[in-house]
Design a protein that fits this description.
65 residues; mainly alpha; 5 helices
Length: 65
């Protein structure tokens, strides 16, 4: 979190960190700047809600059968 706060993370590291705290649900109990960044990443598609990470694409499912 310090790297995020001090802006020493790469953009890939920021997205990965945000995705992790979104997946665990912790982000919604964090400081407003984390919530705002997570909301921005969710809005622009760089991060996804945790339940979307576990969804199976039906088209891929058919190809496996």
């Amino acid at each position: 979190m310090d790297k995020f706060s001090n802006e020493t993370m790469t953009s890939e590291e920021k997205i990965s960190f945000m995705q992790e705290v979104i997946n665990t649900g912790l982000v919604w109990d964090m400081h407003q700047k984390y919530i705002a960044q997570a909301s921005e990443y969710l809005s622009d598609g760089q991060c996804h809600y945790a339940f979307m990470e576990n969804m199976v694409n039906p088209a891929q499912n058919e190809a496996v059968k």
